[in-house]
Design brief:
By secondary structure, the chain is of the alpha+beta class. The protein has a five-stranded antiparallel beta sheet with strand order 4-3-2-1-5. Strands 6-8-7 form a three-stranded antiparallel beta sheet, with helices on one face.
Length: 279
């Protein structure tokens, strides 16, 4: 009899704690909550548009700085909205928090394990900064410019103009290659192949001049031509930096065009075929 009374008392306490944790839900509160959610969504979209517009209006050296502020402004808006919603629907106290934290943590951990992992990874990435908005990154098989940084993941625009969504929790398992790491410039490597009997000094001079005279080249950074031997050709790599990494594709195309035009004047052509390996 004694144990039955204790059990009934404990069940009553749990019900009372749960009741005291939740405030009375009224139609007015539901409307206020909906207004908070809709307003936050509108503000996030406006901030994205404003950020994109402002990044194109400021000087080029500040473009990525403006773009990289977007995740922080979005996080601030979501945090403010969460605080208002919690104050609207919940009575927070030390007793209530301790009573329900364990249960909620276990339930969320099992039901939304991957989602929560991405949220935590996204939060940590804001401070460890493996990538930012505007960076050119390679994650797994996907390469492109980060155009959006959300709570769950990032969105990449590939060179073929496809949009790829990648969850933040990939930073636990995938190597991340960052071309510019927050800088406006990033090295672009343009590959050329020639026969072994080609005039190397002349070809290297032509490639260097193609990069040096390009309107897109950042002349404050080095221009280098590297040579490697292959069984059938000489492989030359022209390494240079565009003034803005978003011109990567246009820049490489111009380097190829200018180089080939100059090479043609000297009668230097690419190898048309390679010998087949002996069986």
């Amino acid at each position: 009899m004694f144990f039955a009374q204790v059990l009934a008392q404990n069940n009553g306490n749990i019900v009372n704690d749960t009741t005291s944790f939740m405030s009375e839900i009224t139609l007015l509160k539901l409307v206020q909550g909906l207004i908070i959610i809709v307003s936050t969504y509108i503000l996030i979209k406006v901030s994205e548009k404003l950020n994109s517009w402002l990044s194109e209006k400021v000087a080029s050296r500040f473009r990525l700085i403006v773009r990289q502020s977007l995740p922080f402004s979005r996080a601030a808006l979501l945090l403010i909205a969460a605080i208002f919603l919690i104050r609207l629907f919940l009575h927070l106290s030390t007793t209530n928090i301790l009573a329900l934290t364990g249960t909620i943590s276990v339930a969320v951990g099992f039901a939304f394990k991957d989602y929560v992992s991405s949220l935590i990874a996204g939060f940590l990435a804001l401070f460890e900064v493996p990538y930012r908005v505007g960076d050119r990154v390679q994650i797994g098989e996907h390469y492109g410019e980060i155009i959006s940084y959300g709570l769950r993941g990032i969105r990449l625009r590939t060179p073929t103009d496809n949009i790829v969504t990648i969850p933040h929790n990939k930073i636990w398992t995938e190597a991340i290659s960052n071309s510019n790491d927050g800088a406006l410039e990033a090295q672009v490597v343009t590959n050329f192949y020639f026969a072994h009997d080609v005039d190397i000094k002349l070809v290297m001079k032509i490639l260097y001049q193609a990069a040096y005279t390009s309107q897109y080249t950042q002349l404050k950074l080095p221009i280098v031509v590297i040579m490697e031997e292959t069984p059938w050709t000489i492989h030359l790599m022209l390494k240079s930096y565009p003034m803005d990494i978003r011109y990567e594709g246009i820049y490489r195309t111009e380097l190829l065009q200018r180089s080939k035009e100059a090479l043609a004047k000297y009668g230097i052509a690419y190898p048309t075929s390679q010998p087949l390996p002996e069986s």
